[in-house]
Amino acid sequence: MGLDTFEAIEDILPLSLVLDNIDAGIAIYDADGNFRFVNTKLITWRNTPRQEYIKMNVHDFADVLDVCVFDLVCQTKERVCRLQYYKSYPAIDGPTKIRVVTGTPIFDEHGNIKNVISVMQDVQSFESLVQSLLTQNELLTVRDPKTIEKVEIIAKSSEIKQVLQIAASVAKLDSSVVLTGESGSGKEVVARYIHEKSNRSGKPMVSVNCAAFPESLIEAELFGYEKGSFTGANQSGKVGLIEAADGSTLFLDEINSLPLNMQGKILRVLDEKCVQRIGSVKTKKVDFRLIVATNQDLPKLVEQKQFREDLFYRIHVIPLRIPPIRERKDDVVPLCLHFLHYFCEKYHIKKSFSDEVLQEVGNYTWPGNVREIRNFVERMVVMTPPSSEIIWNIPKGILHADSAEKKQEYNPLSRNEAAPRLSKEVIMAALALCNNHRAKTAEYLGVSRRYLQYKIKEYHILSRCRYDDEGALRQAYSPQKELE
Q1: Fewest beta carbons less than 10 Å away: which of 189, 282, 284, 315?
Q2: Helices and strands in the chain: count of H runs, count of E runs
Q3: What global pTM score does this model have?
């Protein structure tokens, strides 16, 4: 690209505006490593204003990087591409991430390096983008435990802990499980929890939303078909979702949405352990563990002749009810803090909830259950001005009318003035959510670690319980000793 081309581009759109709209971190350094330009993507990664970056040098980040690509470019005087491990913001306690960094030298007329341009792409974000594009508009969700993070369940209340205890105890069995509960209560999360605890966790779980398929296509999707079976069929045929679950777990969500004729075919597959593709005269043996979920009363549907009685008794081996949020109030604050941390990481910002907000969400009934909590937290995070680190109140209309009657007023206190407002309950909930990690808990609450330690002593939070991976009590310990 010649100089004339660049000038033509500048006539259409400023080059800095172009760089700011590229979904990769871009930095331009001078020969000494001083920042001369950073684009918006890089600013959001570190939550550092552009004017502050311009005052800094690439070596100011030496304590959070495992390799300095700028130095390698200067040494070799050629383009360098490396995997770079770095600490996310804040540097001291943030998790280690990995990104691809490509450094390119720009030479002056004497052959000396004048500038270095670095292009940075976060590996995890890129992999997530690829995964979302691969599954976009797909009705089949295949989760591979080798490539996707293990399911994380926030379980503070005794009600959900009891559910998980039962789920863990039946996970090693191959008996069918029926998960019942209101929409958004977390039935698929529990299904994945059972799968990951089972002997079939080495293969991806096949998750099927029965309500998402048109009735005319559901048989072809579930059972597959041979090539040329019908007009519009894939010329090479197609493997059905049931066959894809061979050796793994098949999760049928909203099973009550299956047509009656399809329920009979599912029953036959369960009885004979065989599946037959459309257009084929052969059957194939399949071995899968069945988990189904519904937000309807199946016995009532059986009485109304809307669900087959024989299929109901065939699958209704281990019933497990997922309680709604209003029956496990102790989970509300931990869930809010969990999603707050998730969306702050996602959008590269820093936010915390005030005591008043946490009290109001604790008094709310959450008819939409966990799904509503997630959407509420994301909405609060993106609606709060970027300059405000503390979310002081919940705007009118965000929650339904049956939320806490107490109206919240905007409180213009600074972060330091807000710190003493932390209650014992909020601190204990945050500690439980962060697995008693002091630095992470302080980050959740928007206070310093020293201040958190002071409040722990003040409130006499002398002991808490640690649990092992199975949820069993491991030991009680005193955080006081750790603080000393």
Answers
A1: 282
A2: 21, 19
A3: 0.55
